[in-house]
Design goal:
The chain is mainly β. It has helices at residues 2-16, 139-142, 178-183; strands at 21-23, 27-31, 37-43, 50-57, 63-64, 69-72, 75-78, 83-90, 102-111, 126-134, 151-155, 158-162, 169-175, 189-191, 196-200, 208-211, 220-226, 229-235. Strand 4 (50-57) and strand 5 (63-64) form a beta hairpin. This is Fimbria/pilus periplasmic chaperone.
């Protein structure tokens, strides 16, 4: 009985830990030295104002403050049911690779107002999305069916996926038919530009690979295998 009373506060926290401040996307891409990327945010609370704190981390999780990408404003107040925006701009990108993407992470933390009630636990929830810098020389490549250049090599306990593109590839499915690739259980992972990743899997007569594109969509690539090498032959 004692354990039930201990669990009750935790359940109440879990039920109320729903982000009030939402983002309009799951990833963002800054293209070359183009105009800033605008991320729309909204306070979905009907009653409470929130502070929204924004910042950018590098791929190792270190907070960056001077560039090459910056988020502004760093902090803003959102009244109930009010929309606003955050601007992602470039500073000096000259030192970033020009033949491939660079990855960062955009963070948004919502800070609730201080409660006037005693013994109230307040949770500052945080959203985190991938933020890519895509240099000018590869912008045209991004408009092509570049995923058709992907390659699978069979190994004893699965496949080595070769990402021959200059883009980060987030794989969310691999199976022997399109439906299972798109909807089956799978531990997703991300492959660096021009990188590879070995995944444990049964071998399929015709493999299907599903990934996340620029818009959050989930295209599926089918492969034709000869010997130990599988080449992409179509994308849906």
């Amino acid at each position: 009985m004692k354990n039930k009373f201990l669990l009750l506060p935790l359940l109440l926290v879990a039920q109320n830990s729903i982000a009030a401040v939402s983002l309009d996307r799951t990833r963002a891409i800054v293209e070359g030295d183009s105009t800033p990327v605008i991320i729309n945010i909204e306070n979905q609370s009907d009653t409470l104002p929130y502070l929204a704190q924004a910042w950018i981390d590098d791929k190792d999780g270190n907070k960056i403050t001077t560039g090459p990408l910056i988020a502004t404003p760093l902090v803003q107040r959102l009244e109930p049911n009010i929309k606003s925006m955050i601007r992602i701009s470039t500073t000096d990108v000259s030192k970033l690779p020009k033949d491939r993407e660079s990855i960062y992470y955009f963070n948004l933390r919502e800070i609730p107002p201080k409660s006037d009630k005693p013994n109230v636990m307040q949770v500052a929830l945080q959203s985190r999305i991938k933020l890519f810098y895509r240099p000018e020389p590869i912008l045209d490549k991004a408009k092509t069916d570049w995923a058709l250049d992907l390659e699978l090599n069979t190994v004893n306990d699965g496949y080595i996926i070769k990402n021959t593109s200059p883009f980060y590839l987030t794989v969310i499915g691999l199976a022997g038919d399109k439906n299972k690739s798109e909807n089956g259980a799978f531990d997703s992972f991300m492959i660096d530009p021009f990188g590879s990743h070995q995944v444990k899997s049964t071998h399929f007569q015709k493999p299907y690979l599903t990934y996340i594109n620029d818009y959050g969509g989930r295209p599926t690539v089918s492969f034709n295998c000869k010997s130990s090498v599988c080449k992409a032959d179509s994308q849906q």
